[in-house]
Amino acid sequence: QKEVEQNSGPLSVPEGAIASLNCTYSDRVSQSFFWYRQYSGKSPELIMSIYSNGDKEDGRFTAQLNKASQYVSLLIRDSQPSDSATYLCALGGLTGGGNKLTFGTGTQLKVEL
Amino acid sequence: GAGVSQSPSNKVTEKGKDVELRCDPISGHTALYWYRQSLGQGLEFLIYFQGNSAPDKSGLPSDRFSAERTGGSVSTLTIQRTQQEDSAVYLCASSLDGGDRGYTFGSGTRLTVV
Question: Would you tell me which residues 16-75 of chain B have a C-beta closer than 8 angstroms to some C-beta of chain A?
Answer without folding.
Answer: 31, 33, 35, 41-43, 45, 48, 50, 56
